[in-house]
Write the structure tokens for this entry.
Amino acid sequence: MKLAKYKLTIRPTSNLSLPPYKGSTFRGGFGHALRRVMCVNRGETCAKCLLGKGCVYTYIFETTPRQAVNETSEDTHLPRPFIIEPPLDEKRHYSRDDNLDLHLLLIGQAINYAPYFIFAFEELGRIGIGKDRGKYRIESVTNIGCGEETLIYDGNSHIKDSPQVIDSTDIQNIASQLNHHQITLRFLTPTRIKYKGKLTKDLNFEVLIRNLLRRSSWLAEVHCDEKWDLDYKGLINRAKEQVTTTHSNLWWHDWERYSQ
């Protein structure tokens, strides 16, 4: 699996009003802006569009089996090849003197479409976002590798190609430096996990690792053309016999979804 991480620094050009959790607002706004700048057949639905197979918008935001790198999947609800990490503070109002940092994680084939992501976020800044359609401009975009950052866009010039990519070996090297006997896992944003078709409130190791393995292997297959040859059941059974939860401070959190 290959990943590329970017940091987008944006500056408001008018007052911005955003919800405490900004993820769904930026994600919905990004999807709207991407379709606006990429779609050449706006009178048609994506499912019926003749250009759907090669469409950048459909691949990124409404991934179906015909857009997947590996077209063997029959599932119609495929994982999207990107993750938007919004500012984690609960600040709601931003003026022209403020900066916001968004982090963007692209997976596999989506790395090739980084300029389209940046262009769509620029368009979103022109359209406006949030309650009062506040506007912003992109100040800079940096590519974050293993221990270093590279400026790839300064808001005006050409977007530099050849990003630093994080692969499975890099992830293994990072993991090898962690304490293998005890780890602390902090959920920085609201987390929604299902087990046996139901939302789970009590998250044990087996449920967590089962969901992580399923999600990661699915992303690798759909967007990286990698089918992991693993004994998932055996791996989970062996691990859960050795791993226990010593402390958990999770609580149920109800929140209203905000979008564009």
The mean pLDDT is 87.
